[in-house]
Amino acid sequence: MAYEIAAAIISVFAISLLSLIGVFTISWRTKTFESITPVIVGFAAGALLGAVFFDLLPEAGKLESGTAFVLGGIVLFFIIERFIHWHHCHDKECDMRKEAVGYLNIIGDAVHNFIDGAIIAAAYLVDASLGLVTTIAIAAHEIPQEIGDFGILVHSGFSRMKALLYNFLSALSAVAGALLALWAASAVAGAIPFLIALAAGGFIYIAVADLLPELHKETSTRRVVMQLIFFLMGIIVIWAMIQIFPAG
Protein backbone atom coordinates (compact mmCIF):
# COMPACT_ATOMS: atom_id res chain seq x y z
CA MET A 1 0.00 0.00 0.00
CA ALA A 2 2.89 2.38 0.77
CA TYR A 3 4.17 1.92 -2.81
CA GLU A 4 0.75 2.76 -4.29
CA ILE A 5 0.44 5.88 -2.13
CA ALA A 6 3.93 7.11 -3.08
CA ALA A 7 3.32 6.34 -6.78
CA ALA A 8 -0.01 8.19 -6.69
CA ILE A 9 1.53 11.34 -5.18
CA ILE A 10 4.49 11.30 -7.61
CA SER A 11 2.14 10.78 -10.58
CA VAL A 12 -0.16 13.62 -9.55
CA PHE A 13 2.77 16.00 -9.01
CA ALA A 14 4.09 15.08 -12.46
CA ILE A 15 0.66 15.92 -13.92
CA SER A 16 0.81 19.28 -12.12
CA LEU A 17 4.14 20.08 -13.81
CA LEU A 18 2.36 19.99 -17.18
CA SER A 19 0.87 23.37 -16.24
CA LEU A 20 4.34 24.87 -16.83
CA ILE A 21 4.16 24.10 -20.56
CA GLY A 22 3.81 27.82 -21.21
CA VAL A 23 7.45 28.27 -20.14
CA PHE A 24 8.43 27.52 -23.74
CA THR A 25 6.95 30.90 -24.76
CA ILE A 26 9.06 32.95 -22.31
CA SER A 27 11.82 33.54 -24.89
CA TRP A 28 9.36 34.69 -27.55
CA ARG A 29 9.16 38.37 -28.37
CA THR A 30 6.16 40.19 -26.93
CA LYS A 31 4.80 41.17 -30.37
CA THR A 32 5.13 37.60 -31.61
CA PHE A 33 3.25 36.23 -28.63
CA GLU A 34 0.55 38.91 -28.77
CA SER A 35 -0.04 38.14 -32.45
CA ILE A 36 -0.84 34.47 -31.73
CA THR A 37 -2.77 35.00 -28.48
CA PRO A 38 -6.17 35.39 -30.25
CA VAL A 39 -5.51 32.08 -32.02
CA ILE A 40 -4.64 30.43 -28.69
CA VAL A 41 -7.91 31.75 -27.27
CA GLY A 42 -9.73 30.02 -30.15
CA PHE A 43 -7.91 26.78 -29.34
CA ALA A 44 -8.72 27.24 -25.63
CA ALA A 45 -12.43 27.70 -26.32
CA GLY A 46 -12.48 24.54 -28.41
CA ALA A 47 -10.47 22.58 -25.82
CA LEU A 48 -12.79 23.64 -22.99
CA LEU A 49 -15.92 22.67 -24.94
CA GLY A 50 -14.28 19.43 -26.06
CA ALA A 51 -13.42 18.56 -22.45
CA VAL A 52 -17.00 19.33 -21.41
CA PHE A 53 -18.89 17.42 -24.10
CA PHE A 54 -16.52 14.47 -24.58
CA ASP A 55 -15.32 13.98 -21.01
CA LEU A 56 -17.15 15.82 -18.21
CA LEU A 57 -20.79 15.75 -19.37
CA PRO A 58 -20.85 11.97 -20.01
CA GLU A 59 -19.68 11.49 -16.42
CA ALA A 60 -22.11 14.07 -15.04
CA GLY A 61 -24.92 12.36 -16.99
CA LYS A 62 -24.53 9.32 -14.78
CA LEU A 63 -26.03 11.35 -11.95
CA GLU A 64 -29.81 11.47 -11.71
CA SER A 65 -29.58 15.22 -11.07
CA GLY A 66 -26.44 15.74 -13.17
CA THR A 67 -27.93 18.35 -15.50
CA ALA A 68 -29.10 20.38 -12.50
CA PHE A 69 -25.55 20.48 -11.15
CA VAL A 70 -24.19 21.48 -14.58
CA LEU A 71 -26.70 24.35 -14.62
CA GLY A 72 -25.67 25.12 -11.05
CA GLY A 73 -22.06 25.35 -12.19
CA ILE A 74 -23.02 27.88 -14.88
CA VAL A 75 -24.96 29.97 -12.34
CA LEU A 76 -22.17 29.71 -9.76
CA PHE A 77 -19.52 30.95 -12.20
CA PHE A 78 -21.79 33.79 -13.32
CA ILE A 79 -22.14 34.86 -9.67
CA ILE A 80 -18.39 34.60 -9.11
CA GLU A 81 -17.69 36.72 -12.19
CA ARG A 82 -20.21 39.35 -11.11
CA PHE A 83 -18.60 39.44 -7.64
CA ILE A 84 -15.14 39.93 -9.17
CA HIS A 85 -16.51 42.81 -11.27
CA TRP A 86 -18.21 44.40 -8.25
CA HIS A 87 -15.17 43.95 -6.02
CA HIS A 88 -12.85 45.70 -8.49
CA CYS A 89 -15.25 48.22 -10.03
CA HIS A 90 -17.56 49.34 -7.21
CA ASP A 91 -18.51 53.02 -7.50
CA LYS A 92 -16.25 53.64 -10.50
CA GLU A 93 -16.10 52.87 -14.18
CA CYS A 94 -13.65 50.21 -15.23
CA ASP A 95 -13.40 47.16 -17.40
CA MET A 96 -12.28 44.07 -15.48
CA ARG A 97 -13.97 41.52 -17.73
CA LYS A 98 -10.78 40.08 -19.18
CA GLU A 99 -9.12 39.75 -15.78
CA ALA A 100 -12.28 38.18 -14.35
CA VAL A 101 -12.15 35.53 -17.09
CA GLY A 102 -8.63 34.65 -15.98
CA TYR A 103 -9.65 34.15 -12.37
CA LEU A 104 -12.73 32.18 -13.38
CA ASN A 105 -10.52 29.88 -15.42
CA ILE A 106 -8.19 29.37 -12.45
CA ILE A 107 -11.14 28.37 -10.25
CA GLY A 108 -12.65 26.03 -12.83
CA ASP A 109 -9.29 24.47 -13.61
CA ALA A 110 -8.54 23.99 -9.91
CA VAL A 111 -11.78 22.02 -9.49
CA HIS A 112 -10.99 19.97 -12.60
CA ASN A 113 -7.43 19.26 -11.41
CA PHE A 114 -8.68 18.31 -7.94
CA ILE A 115 -10.94 15.73 -9.58
CA ASP A 116 -8.06 14.40 -11.71
CA GLY A 117 -5.89 13.99 -8.63
CA ALA A 118 -8.62 12.11 -6.78
CA ILE A 119 -9.21 9.83 -9.79
CA ILE A 120 -5.50 9.00 -10.12
CA ALA A 121 -5.21 8.21 -6.40
CA ALA A 122 -8.33 6.05 -6.47
CA ALA A 123 -6.96 4.14 -9.48
CA TYR A 124 -3.67 3.43 -7.67
CA LEU A 125 -5.59 2.15 -4.65
CA VAL A 126 -7.24 -0.41 -6.93
CA ASP A 127 -4.11 -1.47 -8.82
CA ALA A 128 -0.70 0.07 -9.56
CA SER A 129 -0.89 -0.63 -13.30
CA LEU A 130 -4.38 0.91 -13.46
CA GLY A 131 -3.00 3.98 -11.70
CA LEU A 132 -0.21 4.32 -14.27
CA VAL A 133 -2.58 3.94 -17.22
CA THR A 134 -4.96 6.49 -15.68
CA THR A 135 -2.07 8.92 -15.18
CA ILE A 136 -1.01 8.61 -18.83
CA ALA A 137 -4.61 9.11 -19.97
CA ILE A 138 -5.11 12.23 -17.87
CA ALA A 139 -1.71 13.62 -18.95
CA ALA A 140 -2.72 13.25 -22.60
CA HIS A 141 -5.92 15.18 -21.91
CA GLU A 142 -4.15 17.85 -19.87
CA ILE A 143 -1.45 18.90 -22.33
CA PRO A 144 -3.77 20.61 -24.86
CA GLN A 145 -5.95 21.99 -22.09
CA GLU A 146 -2.97 23.46 -20.21
CA ILE A 147 -1.88 25.21 -23.42
CA GLY A 148 -5.36 26.70 -23.63
CA ASP A 149 -5.42 27.66 -19.93
CA PHE A 150 -2.10 29.48 -20.25
CA GLY A 151 -3.41 31.33 -23.32
CA ILE A 152 -6.56 32.38 -21.46
CA LEU A 153 -4.56 33.83 -18.55
CA VAL A 154 -2.23 35.79 -20.84
CA HIS A 155 -5.20 37.03 -22.87
CA SER A 156 -6.81 38.12 -19.58
CA GLY A 157 -3.92 40.50 -18.88
CA PHE A 158 -1.63 38.27 -16.82
CA SER A 159 2.09 38.49 -17.57
CA ARG A 160 3.55 35.23 -18.85
CA MET A 161 5.40 34.62 -15.56
CA LYS A 162 2.27 35.36 -13.52
CA ALA A 163 0.23 33.10 -15.80
CA LEU A 164 2.75 30.29 -15.29
CA LEU A 165 2.64 30.73 -11.50
CA TYR A 166 -1.15 30.84 -11.23
CA ASN A 167 -1.57 27.95 -13.64
CA PHE A 168 0.86 25.88 -11.56
CA LEU A 169 -0.85 26.77 -8.28
CA SER A 170 -4.16 25.76 -9.83
CA ALA A 171 -2.61 22.49 -11.00
CA LEU A 172 -1.41 21.71 -7.47
CA SER A 173 -5.05 21.23 -6.45
CA ALA A 174 -4.58 17.80 -8.06
CA VAL A 175 -2.20 16.95 -5.21
CA ALA A 176 -4.85 18.05 -2.71
CA GLY A 177 -7.41 15.88 -4.48
CA ALA A 178 -5.09 12.88 -4.39
CA LEU A 179 -4.26 13.31 -0.71
CA LEU A 180 -7.91 13.67 0.21
CA ALA A 181 -8.82 10.61 -1.88
CA LEU A 182 -6.10 8.57 -0.17
CA TRP A 183 -7.36 9.71 3.24
CA ALA A 184 -11.07 9.17 2.64
CA ALA A 185 -11.48 7.22 -0.60
CA SER A 186 -15.17 6.33 -0.23
CA ALA A 187 -16.34 9.84 0.72
CA VAL A 188 -14.36 11.52 -2.06
CA ALA A 189 -15.52 8.97 -4.64
CA GLY A 190 -19.13 9.84 -3.83
CA ALA A 191 -18.52 13.57 -4.31
CA ILE A 192 -16.57 13.36 -7.59
CA PRO A 193 -19.61 13.13 -9.94
CA PHE A 194 -21.08 16.30 -8.41
CA LEU A 195 -17.75 18.15 -8.72
CA ILE A 196 -17.47 17.00 -12.33
CA ALA A 197 -20.92 18.43 -13.08
CA LEU A 198 -20.03 21.76 -11.45
CA ALA A 199 -16.73 21.91 -13.38
CA ALA A 200 -18.59 21.18 -16.63
CA GLY A 201 -20.97 24.07 -15.98
CA GLY A 202 -18.05 26.37 -15.18
CA PHE A 203 -16.18 25.48 -18.37
CA ILE A 204 -19.34 25.97 -20.46
CA TYR A 205 -19.79 29.42 -18.92
CA ILE A 206 -16.17 30.47 -19.54
CA ALA A 207 -16.19 29.25 -23.15
CA VAL A 208 -19.62 30.56 -24.17
CA ALA A 209 -19.91 33.74 -22.10
CA ASP A 210 -16.32 34.96 -22.29
CA LEU A 211 -14.09 33.31 -24.89
CA LEU A 212 -16.41 32.96 -27.90
CA PRO A 213 -17.51 36.64 -27.69
CA GLU A 214 -13.80 37.57 -27.81
CA LEU A 215 -13.45 35.65 -31.07
CA HIS A 216 -16.34 37.63 -32.56
CA LYS A 217 -14.37 40.86 -32.08
CA GLU A 218 -11.85 39.88 -34.76
CA THR A 219 -12.51 41.50 -38.15
CA SER A 220 -9.51 40.35 -40.20
CA THR A 221 -10.64 37.58 -42.55
CA ARG A 222 -7.30 35.80 -42.24
CA ARG A 223 -7.39 35.81 -38.43
CA VAL A 224 -11.05 34.80 -38.35
CA VAL A 225 -10.20 31.75 -40.46
CA MET A 226 -7.21 30.93 -38.24
CA GLN A 227 -9.32 31.28 -35.11
CA LEU A 228 -11.94 28.94 -36.56
CA ILE A 229 -9.29 26.38 -37.51
CA PHE A 230 -7.74 26.44 -34.04
CA PHE A 231 -11.15 26.40 -32.35
CA LEU A 232 -11.95 23.19 -34.24
CA MET A 233 -8.46 21.87 -33.50
CA GLY A 234 -9.06 22.36 -29.78
CA ILE A 235 -12.20 20.23 -30.00
CA ILE A 236 -10.59 17.57 -32.20
CA VAL A 237 -7.42 17.25 -30.11
CA ILE A 238 -9.39 16.70 -26.88
CA TRP A 239 -11.63 14.16 -28.65
CA ALA A 240 -8.63 12.34 -30.11
CA MET A 241 -6.81 12.16 -26.78
CA ILE A 242 -9.91 10.75 -25.08
CA GLN A 243 -10.28 8.12 -27.80
CA ILE A 244 -6.61 7.11 -27.62
CA PHE A 245 -6.27 7.36 -23.83
CA PRO A 246 -9.73 6.86 -22.25
CA ALA A 247 -9.54 8.03 -18.63
CA GLY A 248 -12.21 5.66 -17.39
Topology:
Elements: H1 2-17, H2 30-60, H3 66-89, H4 97-126, H5 128-155, H6 160-171, H7 173-183, H8 185-216, H9 221-244
Helix pairs in contact: 1-4, 1-5, 1-7, 2-5, 2-8, 2-9, 3-4, 3-8, 4-5, 4-6, 4-7, 4-8, 5-6, 5-9, 7-8
Tell me what you see in this structure.
With 248 residues, this protein is mainly α. It has one domain. 84% of the residues lie in helices and 0% in strands. The protein is built from nine helices and no strands.
In angstroms, what separates the terminal alpha carbons? 22 Å
Largest sheet: none
**Element-level helix/strand string:** HHHHHHHHH
What low-confidence regions span 5 or more consecutive residues with pLDDT below 50? none
Number of strands: 0
- What is the number of domains? 1
CA-atom Rg in angstroms: 18 Å
The secondary-structure class comes to mainly alpha
Arithmetic mean pLDDT:
83
What amount of the residues lies in strands? under 5%
What spatial form do the alpha-carbon principal axes imply?
A: globular
Count up the helices: 9
Q: Work out the helicity level.
A: over 70%
